[in-house]
Design brief:
- The protein has 286 residues and is α/β, with parallel strands linked by helices.
- It contains 11 helices and 13 strands.
- The strands form 3 sheets. The protein has a 6-stranded mixed beta sheet with strand order 10-9-8-13-11-12, with helices on both faces. Strands 2-1-6-7 form a 4-stranded parallel beta sheet, with helices on both faces.
- Helix 5 packs across helix 6.
- The longest helix has 18 residues.
- The chain is globular, with a radius of gyration of 19 Å.
- The two termini are 21 Å apart.
Length: 286
């Protein structure tokens, strides 16, 4: 059986320490903050990121350099026969396209998975890849199975402030001002490639209720008949205490499901700011 390495990036929310325990290599995402280069979970902690975000520092996302990707792959291929690389969704970053282009030089030894995932849905893809590897699947087979199931997930997010959506040009200044006055909370969704609007409601309670209702509709509609294969997830840019409360609400609503949790990717946090909460559902590969 071939030895297969599994690689993902820090947009999954998997830390370097967690990656070591899982047996997965984590490629850190780069950020420029006031012109200085940082790497997520290497030279940039969650705490420092949000501190700089609140200080209105100039923060921009980037993608791993081709050199860093190639160095990682070359080192792994000294020990492994093949690599499965699972980057964030190609619809949210060009890092996936870059990795695909680089992989063409490896004669099939590196398979890059474009399965439209990020955050805890990306984590589930990593667990699926590890499970498929244990069953004897090749890197190519793992890629094909993950991509075949790529749209079998949903993410719903609500934000605490409209400031960062306005800053990123996703809403107009006038809409942000009106929304703030009316305490409007947008509920956003990721189903596949893009971050899209889903609903606008008044206040946190209504926003959380809307997200839970949307997940319930997905479980009873899109994923009907697959209850045993479904996993729920929660992600956040809010405080740990608030996150625990949100997780409890999800568990009370869906007590029969396993819940994966973790902080939202800093790449997403740049656009939605601190205080956000998300809930997801995804189908495990059986």
């Amino acid at each position: 059986m071939k030895r297969i390495a599994v690689v993902t990036d820090s947009n999954s929310g998997i830390t370097q320490e967690q990656g070591k325990k899982m047996g997965v290599k984590i490629l850190p995402m780069p950020f420029f903050i006031d012109g200085e280069l940082f790497f997520e979970d290497i030279t940039l902690t969650q705490e420092e990121f949000y501190k700089r975000l609140k200080e209105d520092s100039d923060i921009s996302t980037s993608q791993p350099s081709p050199g860093d990707i190639l160095d990682l792959w070359d080192k792994l291929l000294e020990e492994y026969d093949e690599i499965v690389h699972i980057p964030m969704s190609s619809g949210l970053s060009s890092s996936c396209e870059t990795a695909v282009n680089l992989s063409r030089e490896y004669d099939g030894r590196v398979e890059v998975v474009d399965n439209q995932r990020i955050s805890v849905t990306q984590v589930q893809s990593v667990w699926d890849a590890l499970a498929l590897r244990e069953r004897g699947s090749s890197a190519r087979e793992i890629k094909e199975k993950l991509e075949r199931e790529k749209l079998e997930s949903s993410i719903y997010i609500t934000v605490d402030t409209l400031k960062y959506l306005k800053k990123g040009g996703r809403i107009t200044p006038a809409a942000a001002a009106l929304g703030t006055v009316l305490n409007l909370k947008p509920v956003l969704q990721i189903q596949g490639e893009k971050l899209d609007a889903f609903a606008k409601v008044r206040g946190w309670k209504a926003a959380k209720r809307t997200m839970l209702k949307a997940i319930d509709a997905d479980l009873k509609g899109r994923f009907a008949g697959n209850a045993e294969e479904m996993v729920l997830g929660m992600a956040y840019t809010c405080s740990r205490e608030e996150a625990e409360g949100w997780k409890k609400e999800i568990q009370e609503k869906f007590p029969q499901y396993e819940i994966i949790e973790g902080p939202l990717s800093l790449s997403v946090a740049c656009h939605i700011g601190p205080g956000a909460m998300a809930v997801t559902c995804m189908k495990k590969i059986s």
